[in-house]
Amino acid sequence: MEDQNLVSNAPAAGWYPDPEGQTRYWDGGKWTEHTQAPSAPQLPTPSERPIFDPWATHRSAAAAYAPITEAVAPPATEEYHYATEVIPPDAPVKKKRGKGLLIAVGAIFVAIIVVAAIAGPSDKKKAITTVADQSTTAAAPTASAAPTTGAHATTAAPSTTAAPATTAKATTTMAPTTTAAPTTTAAPTTTAPPQPVHYEGSGSDVIHVTKPETGMVVFQAVHQGSRNFSVWAETAAGEHIDLMVNTIGAYSGQSLLDVDSRTTELFEIKADGPWTIDLYPLASANQWSGTTPAGGAGDSVLIVPGGLPKLAIVQIAHDGTRNFVIWAYTSKSRDLTVNDIGAYNAKRTLAKGVFVLEIHADGNWTITPTA
User: Fold this and answer.
1) I want to staple 318 with a disulfide (CB 3.0 to 4.6 A). Which of 44, 63, 290, 324 is the partner?
2) Strands 251-257 and 217-223
3) What's the gap between Cα 366 and its chain centre?
């Protein structure tokens, strides 16, 4: 009864994966020698799925091993799941052929020995040497066999391995030092001194003013008429700043323009003849040292470079018939030193630091230090 159940549970004959990983034919009871290349597994269709007859237990063992080719429809309510690879559950394991391989190799080795014995001593020695060489090569493939010289064969001398090339030590070349180019000092720029500004005309006029420099400058006017000649310094809005000239007839003289913070933008001129007006930088005026006599005629401007080093007592004289006025300027103040009419001769003091004298006169004048 137990053998009958074992037969009924064996898989049907067909192609199955064997234990060695090949696809081999199962004849229903054992593995055969027939194999084929492995192929991608395929799901069996219901018609191809082997169906085992439940009444196989009442049949003979031989009939049970035959594959059942007739498809039996499964019950309508039963679900079937098919595996992608069918493996015989109780397939016997095919024995490995390792023992047969060893027997074959032994037979070949015995045959080689017999052939060597029949061939004679020389052939035997050659055969043994060859086998030994093969054994040595197989045992130590990395070792070089010593050269063997025999009566019938000469083993070539071992090749000589070239000595490793010697790499020359890299030399380091010092980079040449670079000498910085000498720096060139730019020559100091020289600022050109301010240039005088010249105006000229005839008769009465109003002109726009451009001064040679900011601040106080020297005003010089010349008139060749016979009637009233006057020049007003005005702002851009026409406001009067200072009456520069107010005389009758011909005139030639100097005075200071813009002695306060206001800046002249216009000259309003009244004249009956030709006239010229020149504006000079203050440094262009006549210079006085403060230690020697100075003199002139009419309206004049004197500068004291660096200012008076100390208070000075001076003798002042005038031989005209009209107003005689002297203004003394320091960096902080303005002093009315003389204010008279006609001839004049008297001692006056000039404060320390006086650097400009503005003189208004209609005749000759002199300034002489006394101490």
Assistant:
1) 324
2) antiparallel
3) 75
Can you state the angle between helices 98-119 and 121-139, rounded to 10 degrees? 140
CA–CA gap between residue 72 and residue 13 (Å, rounded):
18
**What's the pLDDT at 189?**
74
365 burial (CB, 10 Å; 0-12 / 13-18 / 19+) is buried
Residue 329: Cβ-neighbour burial (10 angstroms; 0-12, 13-18, 19+):
buried
Amino acid 370: pLDDT? 92
Element (H, E) at 104: helix 98-119
Dist. CA 43–CA 37, nearest whole Å: 18
Burial of residue 201 (number of CB atoms within 10 Å: 0-12, 13-18, 19+)? middle
Q: What amino acid occupies position 235?
A: T
* Alpha-carbon gap, residue 126 to 123, rounded angstroms: 5
Per-residue pLDDT reduced to its tens digit, 91-134? 444 444 455 555 665 667 666 665 555 555 444 344 334 433 44
pLDDT at 125: 42
Tokens coding 9: 């549970």
Residue 299 amino acid letter = D
265-293 pLDDT tens trace:
999 999 999 999 999 999 999 999 999 99
367 touches 357 (CB < 8 A): yes
Q: What is the pLDDT of residue 100?
A: 55
- Using the predicted structure, report yes or no on whether residue 327 has a pLDDT greater than 70: yes
What's the sign of the alpha-carbon dihedral 116, 121, 123, 127?
positive
Alpha-carbon distance of 130 to 292, in angstroms, equals 138
Across the chain, mean pLDDT equals 75
- Read off the tokens for 236: 């851009």
Check residue 106 and give its pLDDT. Answer: 66
Q: Which helix (H) or strand (E) holds 24?
A: strand 23-26
The two tokens of residue 329 are 């300027």
For residue 354, count CB atoms less than 10 angstroms from its CB and return exposed for 0-12, middle for 13-18, buried for 19 or more: buried
What are the φ and ψ backbone dihedral angles of 230, each rounded to 5 degrees? -140, 150
For the record, the structure tokens of 279 come out as: 């504006």
